[in-house]
Amino acid sequence: MQAWVCENPTGVDALQWKTLPLPQPQAGEVRVAIRAASLNFPDLLIVQNKYQVKPALPFVPGAEFSGRVDAVGEAVTAFQIGDPVAVIGATGGFATHACVKASSLIPLPAGFQLEDAAAFAFTYGTSHHALIDRAALQPGETVLVLGAAGGVGTSAVQVAKAAGARVIAAASTDEKCALCRQIGADHTINYARENLRDALKALPGGKGPDVVYDPVGGGLAEAAFRSIAWRGRYLVVGFTAGTIPALPWNLALLKGASIVGVFWGDFVRREPQASARAMAELAAWYAQGKIKPVIDSRLPMSDLPLAYARMGTRQVRGKLLLVNG
Q1: Given 247, 265, 283, which residue is the final one in a domain?
Q2: Within a domain: 278
Q3: How many angstroms separate the CA atoms of 38 and 32, rounded?
Q4: CA-to-CA distance for 129 and 26, rounded, in angstroms?
Q5: Is position 279 within any domain?
């Protein structure tokens, strides 16, 4: 097998593409022949030693991938060789094969494409947990999605539309805004050249969003919060801008608004049954054509450094995939 190996978590440049012995699954494990893996922001943090999960060295990064079971360990009865599966975890995906606990596998229903499955659980799971669970989004409400053309942003636009919401997608270029309209956004705002608050006021209704979905942080947060509707919910999803905003507490008081934290990974760990129900609903929406991952580009698995470099340009729309074979 081949894999990207991190022996020293000092950054992407320290990763090495190596040939390794094919691993054998232990009791309770299966081996997956990996078809595709997607690149997520935590995959960058983990090789920089900045992520909350710090795996033992050496390790293979890649937290989200899909493929087919090609070997099973003792005591595994739920999966058979050839089964299509998705895997979510912290490591292992940037390779041709991985041995993982059977409990970490997501069986794929008929018709679920393997490449879509590699770009699905993290982003759509996060957006469903945020919008449906944490924000209790109702049909007819308005959702503002910041960073709407990225991986989690495109999933949020689609999940909000599937739930019957009106969606305002905010992104940094006209091309990204056009993509958001293609996947269902009702209105778009290019915040690189438009004042976010003024643009929100100019939209029909003008009362502001009921829900703000923010995976970006940084300088847009206060403008978005000042625009929120009465009883609005501000979803704190992440900080891809690199800075954590500090908001004046009086804004929450004046709007009767809630600041709601979204930590999908711990939700999956703490509430596995609720997480499973959410994934089942998402799979049904996928089958109905209501949601589908936006794939920016597909690169050979051996081109992982190029994928990291593209992610760093902030020009990625949707998800980057690394593909074997």
Answers
A1: 265
A2: no
A3: 15
A4: 33
A5: no
Let me know: does 1 contact 282? Beta carbons within 8 Å. Answer: no
Residue 315 pLDDT > 80, yes or no?
no
> Residues 163-198: pLDDT tens digits?
999 999 999 999 999 999 999 999 999 999 999 999
Mean pLDDT, the chain, integer = 95
241 domain residue, yes or no: yes
Q: In the prediction, which pLDDT does 207 show?
A: 87
DSSP 229: P
In the sheet that 258-261 helps form, which strands lie side by side, from edge to edge? 187-190, 166-171, 142-146, 211-214, 233-236, 258-261
- Sole residue written with tokens 């997607």: 38
CA distances, 213 to each of 141, 200, 225, 229 (Å): 13, 15, 11, 13
Helix (H) or strand (E) holding 192: none
Q: Are residues 32 and 149 in the same domain?
A: no
Is residue 287 one of the residues assigned to a domain?
no
Alpha-carbon gap, residue 48 to 224, rounded angstroms? 31
Beta strands 29-39; 84-88: pairing state = unpaired
Q: Is the pLDDT of residue 313 over 90?
A: no
Mind listing the pLDDT tens digit for each residue in 36-93? Answer: 999 998 899 899 998 878 999 999 999 999 999 999 999 999 999 999 999 998 899 9
The values of phi and psi at residue 234, to 5°, are -105, 115
pTM: 0.93
**Pairwise CA distance, residues 193 & 212, whole Å:** 20
* 107: preceding bond cis by omega (within 30 degrees): no
Mean pLDDT of 116-136: 97
Residues 154 and 249 in one domain: yes
H or E element at residue 45: helix 41-47
Task: Tell me the C-alpha distance between 227 and 301, whole Å.
Answer: 43
- At residue 236, φ and ψ (nearest 5 deg) are -90, 100
Helix axes of 151-162 and 174-182: crossing angle, nearest 10 degrees: 30
CA 180 – CA 149 distance, rounded (Å): 6
